[in-house]
Amino acid sequence: MPAEPTLRRKIIHIDMDAFFASVEQRDNPWLRGRPVAVGGSRERGVVAAASYEARKFGVHSAMPSVIAKRKCPDLIFVKPRFDVYKEISHQMRAIFAEYTPIIEPLSLDEAYLDVTENLKGMSSATRIAEEIRARIRAETNLTASAGVSYNKFLAKLASDHRKPDGLFVITPKMGPAFVEILPVRKFHGVGPATAAKMMSLGIETGLDLKACPLAFLQEQFRKSGPYYYWITRGIDERPVRADRIRKSVGAENIFAADLFTFDAARDALQPILDKVWRYCDSAGSRGRTVTLKVKYADFQQITRSRSAASPFATRAELERQSFELLAHLFPVAKGVRLLGVSLSSLDEERTNEKPQLSLGL
Hints:
Elements lengths: L10 E6 L2 H9 L8 E3 L10 E2 L1 H4 L9 H7 L4 E3 L3 H16 L5 E5 L2 E5 L10 H16 L3 E6 L2 H10 L5 E3 L5 H6 L11 H9 L5 H5 L3 H8 L2 H8 L16 E12 L2 H22 L5 E8 L4 E7 L7 H13 L8 E9 L17
Parallel strand pairs: 2-4, 7-8
Antiparallel strand pairs: 1-6, 1-7, 2-3, 5-6, 9-12, 10-11, 10-12
Helix pairs in contact: 4-5, 10-11, 12-13
Main location: cytoplasm
Catalytic activity: DNA(n) + a 2'-deoxyribonucleoside 5'-triphosphate = DNA(n+1) + diphosphate
Organism: Methylocella tundrae
């Protein structure tokens, strides 16, 4: 069982503010101060990112565009420019690399940094976070929020605490109390379904969760039970992994018109499979679990998975398994608006743990 660590790590979580939308507002002055949604279309798309002006109306990422438009009639839809976002992400990571080699990117716009031992020889993680935020602003004309703490869970909570353009520090003395008063729905790693289950069990805050015995949490939440048990005590021993390997790869597509036949769905799945397999080839990785994602016209979503004894060696094998999963869903009573395929159980994650020094935040 984890115990209260005697050697403290210094972890920073950097998270860009409304990244995609902020880039579009930066590059198009007319969009500044206006509610902007990146991605999709008014009728059939899904919001990839929303500006803070749009969020005031309840618009958020992964929301169907038609609902977003209903919530915010003046919402402006902008096509994503992933090449631009990737270029800015590379700029950010170059900045991070000047401070530490231990960087764990989570997406284009956020990452964990372990600065316990850093390239600048700085004793204050807070000062490092301040410098990084200033550098990002100067070099990209965008803002980032930062959280500083002694573990990943608390650093992530801290970066969310004063968004946008904020910096917050959770010290070892603050950690357990900070978690206790927080609603469980705001915990990183607790999704809507898990939050709803916790609420049904009378678990609304970190303090409620802390009162639950470990055996109870394991019974209710299986492998996640111990994680919930320890984070409510401010303990998270996960290291920042500089060599973090992607565990899955996926692609999906929303269709201009709903699909009703197996042949149409099979044809629509081909370019999705191509994209997934291109990544596998370029990364030199293979997986043995394929998951088919289907979203219907009424936005009901289902997934179906199948695992092989060994990784798929060819695209043809991936295609065959995907088509078999798809075939079981037809005929359909309602149209299919989205299909996706993901491949998981990829290369096993390596570890790169290093001794940590006891330094103040």
